[in-house]
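Weekly modeling sync, notes
Attendees: AB, CL, MP (scribe)

Item 1: holo prediction request
CL wants a bound-state model with cytidine-5'-triphosphate before deciding which constructs to order. AB pointed out that an apo prediction alone won't tell us much about the pocket. Agreed to run with the ligand included and paste results into these notes for async review.

Input as submitted:
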Amino acid sequence: MLSGKRVLLIIGGGIAAFKSLDLIRRLREQGATVVPVLTKAAEEFVTPLSTSALAAEKVYRDLFDLTDEAEMGHIELSRAADLVVVAPATADLLGKMANGLANDLASTLLMATDKRVLVAPAMNVRMWEHPANQRNVATLRGDGVLFIGPDEGEMACGEFGPGRMSEVPEIVGAVIAALADGPLRGKHVVVTSGPTHEPIDPVRYIANRSSGAQGTAIARALSALGAEVTFVTGPADIAPPAGVRVVRVQTARQMLEAVQGALPADAAVFAAAVADWHVANESGRKMKKTREGLPVLEFAENPDILATVSQMGQGRPGLVVGFAAETDDVIAHATAKRDRKGCDWIVANDVSPATGIMGGSENAVTVISGDGAEDWPRMSKDQVAARLAAKIAEALT
Ligand code: CTP
């Protein structure tokens, strides 16, 4: 199941570390190469020698081991893997990951990796339930980190509750699922997301309230199905998902350039809330109050990225998906928008204030294609993303 796959296994310092030795054996039985990394605390529970012997690989332990830097730097070590697994993931490791600390080899690898990360937490039940740990877990889930467990049960410390590391076969199953070849494997999808900022002068800009939530969820869902995703994002509130190629832009014009630079692609999803205009008389200096009166801003139209890509002829992605936020006559307006811009599908939603969709966590959309309009029930933005990703996979395969 895992032949040819390379797993970087970070072993944290917890009593459950003894199970990680068995995990190495079971992953190798499945054909994986396991490269172990021990934190300092882990060495109190398992020895480098037994870890290395079971993995039949060198065990990595110290960030400042110069021989290793000569052989393989920490950046390369973190990226040569297909998946990074942290087992046991202690409260300390989760805290470091959630807060971006990188003060030893394990935490530095976790910051440097561009691969998906699967964690198997193990800690005392009170520590697991502590608000600080729960905050970290929520942050990590939002970053796209995969979790297996913890399980509930009797713990080494004598207490009972959630906190036990999952059993080895379950962790192996989660590794297999994380590395499974999804239906979008080998497909490249460009996703735009977030607002754009259109400068007035060096310190002021025009923006909109898009959080980037729906676009981020779509990028994550496509990546989960195996797609290679280029995520072109304006300055959004929420962090981009892990495991995608992120291109950050400010303006609509930069977003168009970034999208064109990312092509060719099999599909493109335009979820960004792009400003329709930019300030034509943008000032190179900070505008000052003067006695002569109020400043007058002149506007010029921004390029329509969705329309440009939909109508590009040669090199056009096979499937182009746009969004339409409407407050009335949703289907009629969205259908007209699809025809005008030339995209294949329009995901339309009613954003009138009564729906509570704008800025909320749920969405109710209608997907308009050449086959007509398909109403989806109200669901979370993550569920809309998963369903849209599945529909894209169906169309591309
Ligand atoms: N879009 C784009 N480039 C623009 C403007 C919009 O790529 N300069 C894309 C958006 O990402 C979205 C769709 O086009 O996929 C929305 O089209 P738009 O005409 O902006 O729709 P609304 O925002 O609903 O505005 P309006 O109803 O005023 O046309």
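Recorded for review: The first helix runs from residue 17 to 29.
Action items: CL to compare against the apo run; MP to circulate these notes.
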